[in-house]
Design goal:
Helix content: 40-55%
Shape: globular
Mean pLDDT: 82
Strand order of the largest sheet: 4-3-5-2-6-7-1-8
Radius of gyration: 32 Å
Distance between the termini: 36 Å
Low-confidence stretches: 3-7, 475-510, 777-824
Largest sheet: 8 strands, mixed
Oligomer: single chain
Amino acid sequence: MNSSASSRPSIVVAELGPTNTGKTYRAIERMLEHGSGIMGFPLRLLAREVYDRVTARVGEGRVALMTGEEKRLPPRPDYWICTVEAMPTDRTADFVAVDEIQLAAHRERGHVFTDRLLHARGRKETWFLGADTMRPMVQTLIPHASVKRATRLSQLRYSGHRSLKSLPPRSAVVAFSADRVYELAESLRRLRGGVAVVLGALSPRTRNAQVAMYQSGEVQYLVATDAIGMGLNLDLNHVAFAGLSKFDGAEQRDLFPDELAQIAGRAGRHLNDGSFGTLNTLPELSPRVVSAIETHRFPAVRNLIWRNSALDFSSAEALLDSLARAPGHQAFTRVERADDFDALKDLSRVPAIQELATGQDRVELLWQVCQVPDFRKGLFGQHVALLRETFLQLTAGDGRLDPVWLSRQVSPLDDVSGDIHTLMDRLAAIRIWTYISHRPGWLEDAGHWQERTRSIEDALGDALHERLVERFVQRAARRTSRRFVRATSQAASGSDSPFAKLGLLLSDVPGADGAALTEEQFVQRVVDAAHEAFEVDALGNIAFEGEPLARLVRGKDRRSPLLALAEPEVWTAGARQRLERRLLALVRDLVTEAMGGFPAEALAGAGSSAPTRGLAYRLSEGLGVVSQGEACEQWRLLDAEARARLTAQGLCEGHRFFFVADALSPQALERRCMLTSLFQQRPVPKGVPREPVLSATDVAGQAARAFGYEVLGSVALRIDIVERLCTALRHPHGERQVRALLQELRLEGGTRARVLRELGGPGPEVGRPAKRRRRRRGGASSSSSERRGGAPASSPPAGHPKAQRSGASEAEGHLPGHGAGPRS
């Protein structure tokens, strides 16, 4: 992610402007035009939202999610969606973006954003997104950056103050403490029947369920903290402030106008205008503040928070000194306080730790321990005591945390009883252990602890969502928020649908608290399920845990099938929305599988040359396979570097086709046939794609190539077999392989001759078994026999069992791994 990763300077773009300008949307689109990318966001809730959006575009197999407590790492991700602190600084990517860069002025977290502004660079392109107040800083620190002003897509107007009772539908009320949020939510429940709640301390699981309930229209009001100000996309028409001051970690202070604007700007999405105001318990906003918010004009940021990143690990004292080093630029202000620095100061005074933290490795480990976040935000001394014990265990014995001690810390948190406050406290505590479980080398069985802490957090999140719904949504207003088992059981009484059966089956499946699964719990299981957990048959039916869930339906082309839930009336609107988004990501994975993993969408972006874009587009249309005649011109125009890059992505220049090697694997061909059958609205021809040779009448015309076959005379050969035959025919010693293939395919007589002729072979005699001839005394040599098409005298004839075994072994399998490299 550093600029030193490339000899050519990265293009740096700063998209600065108010909320609802489409900055994040454009950055995501730009990233997907590159082959790889890393994006950093200020909140894990926002990172998870963007992760869901990107996976719906390209599939989960190509996207990693990295936050302090949640890591989803497929084997070979192209795109990384992260919190800013979790951005992998040791990894390079074509595109890098950091959102809400104005947080570089934040007194506690700002130094991380400043570091990314100074050092995070993509190989080709880097974007910084944020408020226009950062313009002078960006121009000063990155003189070559292209600074663009983003214009808001809709108008934002002040509407004075209102009572809770007079708030219009699709409103959010913003408060700055959890207690005040609950108080307002209770009042709105009594007045309006139901409300969703969003706080930064919620788990992504709970927050997603609450937001889905609001977005789907099940409730019309939202009560939140300023967590909604950081880019969360909500369909809001009005934002009402229930407070104008907050505790920022050091003191209770009034919010600055630009902070108010960041929150108020959530009202009005895309082209819909929005309004903001205060509750009637507060005074009117001053005309100066109102004007600043409506016109998006605020004082420029003049100082960024900075902390030295060149740390000295020779001793704890040296580390403290290097962290306290003053900045060398007048634009920077040294960070006043940070939890990790304070923890290091406290721990470095402990005699037991002074004795152990003597070498560079130990001091570096101590610093890593100090960086464990205090999610509980309670007594700091309690957190330091936990860090002390953690460090002492990591420096004793086998250098791992004691599983018995770890279990004593984690087990009490595995309890979903209690009220909202109790569950919130347990959620905060388990987040610490989830974070620790993802530290490499700290635990004996890290995978087990990662799974356990995540399952506890999920269970607590589900329970918290249930408590929030029970408390803040009246029963009369919850007609569509029924327990999942009850809803499907009712459906089952008058329906013999397969999905009604699923509801009955699930009535015996325990949820997190031992009871039957609720709708929210089942939907979350689907959302969290790996790609392999879904079953997709040849007709495009999608099943989960053995029961129908959805089906694919015809889209605008083979690459864009649409989705239809089975029994959609069973689900509440919020559940439908979340299921459809997860299944859309699955569909993208299926299309990517059919293309052999080829990143056609990224290569077709504006960052690629015109020939590369053209070739990528044709390969995308052909699901990883395109004929020589269609693509040879683009291939000819490519330079050596572009060809090498495409070859590294698996593209092969065959004799009749350009193809992605893995697109001709059995699994990819199965996906190709499913997508083709779906789009053409015709059944897959019998034998496709298992049989390597079919009658041409079974797959005629353009349908043959669409299903992965090439018509040659009276037969249709699968494309991988065609390329193998072509390769063997052009190899100086490929005659034996040709004979073996033809024998394996059972091609005889005129059919064999026609196939060889169309593939450019030397003649029909190549495929015929050689006749054994008695050598004449003083007659022709064995080499002349070979020239006439016979086998060498020292080799067994084509019909001999030994030759058949050799030919069969050469003919087994598909093209990849059998001479299918780029053509010489």
